[in-house]
Amino acid sequence: MTGTPWPGAIAVSGGGDSLALMLLLADWTKAGHLAPPVVLIVDHGLRKGSQRDVRQAAQWARAAGLKPHVLSWKGRKPGADIEAAARQARYRLMGEWCRRNGIRALYVAHTLEDQAETFLLRLARGSGLDGLCAMAALAPYPWPGLGDLTLARPLLDFMRAELRAFLEARHQDWLDDPMNEDPRFARVKLRQAAPELAALGLSPRRLSAAARHLARARAALDAATDVWLKQCCLFEAGGAFVDGNALARIPAEIGLRGLAHVLGRVSGQTYRPRFERLERLYAAIVAGQLQAARTLHGCRIGPAARSAALFGPGTLTILRERGRSGRGTDPA
């Protein structure tokens, strides 16, 4: 990947994708005379046998000449939405470890199928353009306070079958997580439906291509949104002033993106607000129906007092809710 940051750590679960990435990066650093990657293994503690799998993954890392570090997710586990909670815990634990140890990037083994599954999951959830765009090969780290850390995904153009063929050629075993077969999880249901979707023309490669097309459209909208933000928004400590009338005059997609950007910056949230709730707030502003303050995404949004109407009538104030702090949430 162009601009690959180093030194780096690898998120390794012991599954085929992450083990393939581990071996590939070990080879790459050896050939380039670079410092070897660090292996980070998270024990979620969600099922019996997880510690055995962690020990096995660590053993494979050492056999490859790499140093493994095991990070444990401690404390009570949520009873619902466990996938999202586990993902947040992983990123928090690994990101904080990287920051403490001077690591510039965390490498994860997302594949072409992961790209396609993410697209479909977000489509089913009603996500907007941002949610449907492709995962980027290099992206900001998805946890607050870690802006100097990069999330790297070098395997987005590779199929899982290709990675397993690579492991077989290297005589490398891997683990199959039983949770990847649990039909309670939406991503597992999508994997089970993959043959039927492919028969309808919705193959992982085509879905991934659609996500990349949308990413190019997003880049163009980002440029237009940046112009609007500079002209019609003023950020101050703990909040922002927004020209609500100007918000109503621009194309809806740019307005939604601009509003989401302001909410995220004020609240400190890593991800954008849920698209359906964002649309409702935007519609109220555009229709002139925001007569009283509303809350969304850790922010309080309402009409500005006359003395603070920096953009004249229609000025909005967006303030962080008291007692709220930025944290990672599931992307929309």
How many whole angstroms does the radius of gyration measure?
Answer: 22 Å
- What would the CATH topology of the largest domain be? Rossmann fold
Largest sheet: 6 strands, mixed
Helix share bin: 40-55%
Low-confidence stretches: 327-332
Named CATH architecture of the largest domain:
3-Layer(aba) Sandwich
Strand order of the largest sheet: 3-2-1-4-6-5
Structural class: alpha/beta
The total domain count is 2
Strand fraction: 5-15%
Question: Which CATH class of the largest domain is shown?
Answer: Alpha Beta
CATH superfamily of the largest domain: HUPs
- What's the mean pLDDT score? 91
Question: Count of helical segments?
Answer: 11
> How far do the termini sit from each other?
26 Å
Order of helices and strands: EHEHEHEHHEEHHHEEHHHEEE
Task: Outline the structure in words.
With 332 residues, this protein is of the alpha/beta class. It folds into two domains: 8-202, 3-Layer(aba) Sandwich (Rossmann fold); 220-320, no CATH class. Helices cover 46% and strands 14% of the residues. The chain has helices at 16-31, 50-63, 82-100, 112-124, 129-132, 160-169, 186-199, 204-232, 244-249, 252-267, 275-286, and strands spanning 8-11, 38-43, 67-72, 105-107, 138-140, 150-152, 233-236, 239-243, 294-296, 299-303, 315-320. Strands 3-2-1-4-6-5 form a six-stranded mixed beta sheet, with helices on both faces. Strand 9 and strand 10 (299-303) form a beta hairpin. Helix 1 (16-31) crosses helix 6. It is elongated, with a radius of gyration of 22 Å. It starts with 7 loop residues before the first strand and ends in a 12-residue tail after the last strand.
